[in-house]
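Support request from a user on the community tier.

User writes: "When I paste my structure tokens into the form, the page sometimes reloads and wipes my input. The last time it worked, I copied everything first. Here is what I submitted, just in case something in the input itself triggers the reload:"
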């Protein structure tokens, strides 16, 4: 290698070393200061500068003011006293202001410790605490002996707190409280963005207001828009209503809630609840819409009722009686309605259940099973008292069928019929217009001895032990007894006969099984009391 080449290599190395030295020197920029008066003392030593009267320090793009300070240029550490003020820019160039009574600052670590009557200000944010550590380089503040943050209408307090000025984020820990004119929030761990006004719940959280109560263990709340998302063991309470689900969305301004997966709405006043996987709730009018495995449950001491449908609506109806507003609950169910209750079962396409008079109205192909009887009509009204059926009104194409044996069926038919039930047994049927009946007569040993066929405009039928005991005929009765086995099977059935015993829900899980679609339930039914 010639002399010129060696010389060039040496120059490059010297330039590179010089660059490293310059970078290191810039990265470790010394603290500059200004003071109207500074001096040293024998007691403190020559390395400690005593600064008084309008003291200002400059370091890492930050400016620090105080009344007096003790500064060691060798260690790049100073202690400042009185009227502390720090002006430090964040990543976006906005200024963070820090105030306090005393300050410890390390220039090597770019770390400040501010004590006594500490105040942090950025834009509209004010943080008050007794002790605050602040990283000038990373713009991160930390308090550990309680702090109070005021941001707009919200006042936040906690035992511990981190403030990330570059991201406008607070991280609060332990005994977190948010006070807002509309609510108070209690949390274990909370992250809050001062720019977006969104709080993120990272632990058990309660939100309490005059109108409602909310609990969750994960989620977020937008303080500007008053909308929120609650996850994990989420619970919403409003008056007598209680809503739970894996995930809840709530718009406080509109009073609208949405819930998803394993949703339950409990009405403590009516002792009833709705379950499903998707729910829409309107708080102001107390309206609920449940879909996806929707189930309505009417809790009773002995005979809880379970009703499933594709869609179930629940809302209130106010009726003025004697100048008093009485509020009643109404349940509407649509598509594939099926009911299981120990004393009766039913299915239809749509249904209305009015709590005011305890009446259930069944529409489109309704079927009701009570004891041994299958009851059908174009429209059925069930009247209940204390959660038990008292009366059944069958309008148009009314038909009652019960099994006599495995191949024969007792039948009553008419345009309209009314059935009366006592102690869960159908004991009387009033047939109005075009009455027809077929029933099989047996001896004491249950052997068939005859078939009775009756035609009559109107009649009253009395039943005993689920069998026809007595019939009263009105207007042009025609009755004839036929010996056993003399009628063809088709003659033993009235027009319109359809036996739907295979569709009868014999247990509560059967309410998910439909004639058109047989499927396993999407969700496991809840216990009788949630």
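"...and here is what came back when it finally went through:"
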């Amino acid at each position: 290698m010639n002399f010129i080449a060696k010389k060039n290599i040496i120059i490059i190395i010297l330039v590179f070393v010089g660059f490293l030295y310059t970078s290191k020197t810039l990265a470790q920029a010394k603290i500059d200061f200004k003071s109207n008066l500074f001096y040293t003392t024998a007691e403190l030593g020559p390395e400690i500068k005593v600064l008084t009267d309008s003291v200002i320090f400059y370091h890492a793009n930050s400016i620090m003011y105080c009344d007096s300070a003790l500064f060691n240029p060798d260690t790049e550490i100073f202690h400042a006293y009185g009227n502390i003020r720090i002006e430090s820019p964040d990543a976006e160039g906005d200024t963070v202001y820090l105030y306090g009574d005393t300050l410890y600052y390390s220039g090597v670590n770019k770390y400040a410790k501010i004590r006594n009557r500490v105040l942090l200000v950025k834009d509209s944010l004010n943080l008050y605490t007794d002790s605050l550590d602040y990283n000038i380089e990373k713009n991160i503040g930390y308090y550990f002996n309680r702090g109070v943050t005021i941001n707009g209408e919200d006042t936040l307090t906690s035992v511990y707190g981190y403030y990330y000025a570059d991201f406008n984020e607070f991280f609060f820990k332990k005994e977190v409280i948010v006070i807002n004119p509309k609510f108070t929030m209690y949390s274990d761990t909370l992250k809050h963005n001062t720019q977006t006004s969104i709080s993120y719940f990272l632990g058990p959280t309660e939100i309490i207001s005059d109108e409602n109560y909310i609990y969750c263990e994960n989620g977020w709340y937008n303080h500007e828009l008053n909308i929120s998302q609650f996850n994990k063991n989420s619970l919403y309470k409003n008056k007598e209503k209680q809503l739970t689900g894996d995930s809840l969305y709530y718009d406080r301004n509109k009073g609208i809630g949405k819930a998803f997966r394993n949703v339950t709405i409990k009405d403590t006043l009516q002792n009833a609840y709705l379950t499903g996987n998707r729910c829409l709730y309107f708080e102001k009018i107390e309206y609920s819409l449940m879909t996806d495995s929707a189930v309505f449950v009417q809790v009773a001491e002995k005979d809880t009722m379970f009703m499933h449908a594709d869609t179930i609506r629940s809302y209130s109806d106010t009726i003025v009686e004697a100048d008093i507003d009485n509020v009643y609950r109404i349940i509407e169910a649509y598509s594939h309605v099926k009911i299981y209750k120990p004393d009766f079962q039913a299915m239809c396409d749509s249904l209305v259940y009015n709590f005011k008079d305890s009446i259930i109205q069944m529409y489109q192909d309704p079927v009701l099973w009570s004891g041994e009887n299958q009851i059908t009509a174009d429209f059925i009204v069930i009247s209940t008292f204390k959660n038990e059926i008292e009366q059944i009104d069958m309008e148009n194409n009314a038909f009652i069928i019960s099994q006599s044996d495995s191949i024969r069926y007792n039948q009553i038919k008419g345009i309209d019929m009314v059935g009366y039930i006592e102690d869960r047994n159908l004991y009387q049927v009033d047939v109005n217009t075009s009455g027809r009946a077929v029933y099989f007569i047996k001896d004491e040993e249950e052997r068939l001895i005859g078939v009775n066929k009756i035609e009559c405009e109107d009649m009253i039928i009395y039943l005993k032990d689920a069998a026809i005991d007595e019939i009263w005929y009105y207007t042009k009765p025609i009755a004839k007894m036929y010996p056993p086995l003399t009628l063809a099977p088709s003659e033993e059935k009235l027009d319109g006969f359809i036996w739907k015993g295979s569709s009868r829900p014999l247990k509560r899980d059967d309410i998910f099984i439909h004639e058109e679609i047989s499927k396993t339930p999407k969700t496991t039914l809840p216990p009788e009391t949630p």
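Agent notes: The reload is a front-end session timeout and is unrelated to the input. Residues 3-27, 516-530 have pLDDT under 50 and may be disordered. The longest helix spans residues 3-27. Escalated to web team.
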